[in-house]
Design a protein that fits this description.
Number of domains: 2
Strand order of the largest sheet: 1-2-3
CATH architecture of the largest domain: Orthogonal Bundle
Distance between the termini: 48 Å
Order of helices and strands: EEEHHHEHHEH
Radius of gyration: 15 Å
Length: 172
């Protein structure tokens, strides 16, 4: 089972969502379904090679079920184990901060930088948000641009609008 990845593509109202899970947790989510592109880019390479405690197919099954529940407005928080080892220490700190954003709440890149202890590092925080390997599970769609404007999203602005509407968020 070492280094085994389980892959799935789930049809959703957002289009196909590709998911990849390993023995350390969910490693990648691709909005648009092109999980093979993500994997070929080396996204799922862990920095440490210790044996994980999860079975990849069980993680994948849990992630798929929770994703469907979320999209049906039956779930506000994810319990799937996540493997964020592919990021730098700085990126992981930003992603952990994103995980603390509650369903239906939003922040800005500047607020996220300040709250992460990196006041003034708005651009670096924006780059970390854009590099998030687990959109939706690590809710980068909840980050707005200055002035509470929609801003960008790696999964496309149409998907970001749908996710924010699902959570009852209004923006400028």
């Amino acid at each position: 089972m070492r280094n085994q990845l389980a892959l799935a593509c789930v049809p959703t109202p957002l289009g196909e969502v590709g998911l990849a899970a390993g023995e350390h947790g969910l490693v990648a989510v691709c909005l648009g379904g092109d999980i093979e592109r993500l994997l070929s880019g080396g996204l799922c390479r862990r920095r440490d090679h210790g044996k994980g405690r999860h079975h990849p197919w069980q993680v994948l099954e849990q992630a798929c079920a929770e994703l469907v529940e979320y999209l049906l407005s039956a779930r506000e928080k994810f319990d799937t184990p996540l493997d964020l080892s592919c990021g730098s220490e700085f990126q992981r700190a930003v992603w952990r901060r994103l995980q603390r954003l509650k369903f239906g709440s939003v922040t800005t890149y500047a607020e996220l930088a300040d709250g992460s202890g990196h006041k003034g590092a708005t651009r670096a925080v924006g780059n970390a948000v854009g590099a998030n390997p687990l959109p939706i599970f690590v809710p980068c769609h909840r980050v707005l641009a200055a002035g509470r404007k929609l801003g960008g999203f790696s999964g496309g602005l149409d998907r970001k609008r749908k996710l924010l509407r699902l959570e009852g968020v209004k923006w400028k």
